Amino acid sequence: MKPVYNRILLKLSGEALMGNQDFGISSEVISSYAKQIKDIVDLGVEVGIVIGGGNIFRGLSGAEQGVDRVTGDHMGMLATVINSLALQNSIEKLGVPTRVLTAIEMPKIAEPFIKRRAQRHLEKGRVVIFGAGTGNPYFTTDTAAALRAIKINADVVIKATKVDGIYDKDPVKFTDAKKYNTITYTEVLNNDLKVMDAAAISLCRDNKLPLIVFDSLKEGNIEKVVLGEKIGTVVL
Questions:
Q1: How many CA atoms lie within 13 A of 94 on its CB side?
Q2: What confidence score (pLDDT) does residue 60 get?
Q3: What pLDDT score was predicted for residue 85?
Q4: What string of DSSP letters covers 132-172?
Q5: Of 136, 152, 132, 131, which Cα lies nearest the Cα of 47?
């Protein structure tokens, strides 16, 4: 089968990297992601990735513990860089060239984010991981994913989660939760569905960028999404 997308932005949560741990990075989970990413690169798909840092530190959680919000958000950005380097290492072990580009300059370990450089890496078949969020406090990695997707002209944002799509309420807590196969961005905002933060949703909507939310912990699902199989929820 031929991929239906040429260039994607994959949004991974930091929490997903924990697996069954309470903290840190599960080698099993990150290896699974690396393998799934290699599989779609082998299909000819150009892959950009934004990864969160919640498995290490979250700015909002830090604020609740007395850490200044701006400082906490900067700490969270650095946590995303740790995750980016770990994912880069796992992907490159499989023989796939990978670059980490960061919104906060740290030339000893990563390249600075420059739109043309990112696009060139993608054109050369390299996986590009965008670290440090937007580089600004008060913005989530969801917003960073939307921004990076727009800047690299991605065809779609695919958000990897622990559930198999978007529901009208938490399916873990409510057995009668209804899953949406498709939904509009306006409906997501109006119903306050916790898919991405409002800024990210608005960016995707205003730039007519489709979003697919799906269960990434089931190996092979990322490939199914890029091949156009009907899994998860599509937001248009």
A1: 21
A2: 66
A3: 98
A4: STTSSTT--HHHHHHHHHHHTT-SEEEEEESSSSEESS-TT
A5: 152
Residues of the chain with confidence (pLDDT) below 50:
none
Give the distance from CA 50 to its chain's centroid: 4
What CA–CA distances, in Å, run from 44 to 5, 105, 180?
10, 30, 30
**Statement: 7-235 belongs to CATH 3.40.50.300:** no
Environment class of residue 44 by beta-carbon count within 10 Å: exposed (0-12), middle (13-18) or buried (19+)?
exposed
Strands (E), 35-162: 46-51, 98-102, 111-112, 127-131, 156-161
Question: Phi and psi for 207 in degrees, rounded to 5?
Answer: -105, 10
What local confidence, expressed as pLDDT, does residue 63 receive?
A: 64
> Where is 215: in which H helix or E strand?
strand 211-215
Half-sphere exposure of residue 121: CA atoms within 13 angstroms, side-chain side: 23
What integer pLDDT is reported at residue 173 of this predicted model?
87
Residue 128 tokens, joined: 């590009």
User: Which amino acid is present at 154?
Assistant: A
Q: How far is CA 37 from the centre of its chain?
A: 12
